[in-house]
Amino acid sequence: MRTKVVKWGNSLGLRIPKSFAGEVKISEGSEVDLSLEDGHLVIRVAPQASFSLDDLLAGITESNLHRETDTGDAVGGEHW
Predict the structure, then answer these.
(1) Pick from 10, 48, 11: nearest CA to 29
(2) pLDDT band for position 1 (50/70/90)?
(3) Which residues sit opposite 34 in a β-bridge?
(4) How far apart are CA 23 and CA 46, in angstroms?
(5) pLDDT tens string 26-62
(6) Can you spell out the DSSP letters for 28-79?
(7) Which one, of 25, 68, 20, lies nearest residue 46 by Cα?
């Protein structure tokens, strides 16, 4: 499929046909990686970062653990 490159501010923009976007599961705001390979522009969907609770908890150490903060007495209808 052929499409046109258009001026977008000081950069250039490329329209991705809906059928292509649907097939690779990208939408507005999706992140992509751009690279040059043998003189060709290559666009790849950026992998989504995924974190598990266990992975996140494993990153907690004594040096980055925040202590409890006292914000004072309740001022509204809070129940603890």
Answers:
(1) 48
(2) confident
(3) 43
(4) 15
(5) 999 999 999 999 999 999 999 888 889 999 999 999 9
(6) TT--EEEEEETTEEEEEEPPPP---HHHHHHT--TTTPPPP----S--SS--
(7) 25
- Alpha-carbon dihedral sign for residues 22, 40, 5, 9: positive
Separation between Cα atoms, residue 4 and residue 27, nearest integer Å: 19
Q: Which helix (H) or strand (E) holds 6?
A: strand 5-8
User: Percent of the chain scored above 90 by pLDDT?
Assistant: 70
Q: Give the residue extent of every domain in the chain.
A: 5-58
Q: Are 56 and 49 in contact (CB under 8 A)?
A: no
Could you tell me the pTM of the whole model? 0.54
Best CATH choice for the domain 5-58 from the list 2.60.40.420, 2.10.260.10, 3.40.190.10, 3.40.50.2000 = 2.10.260.10
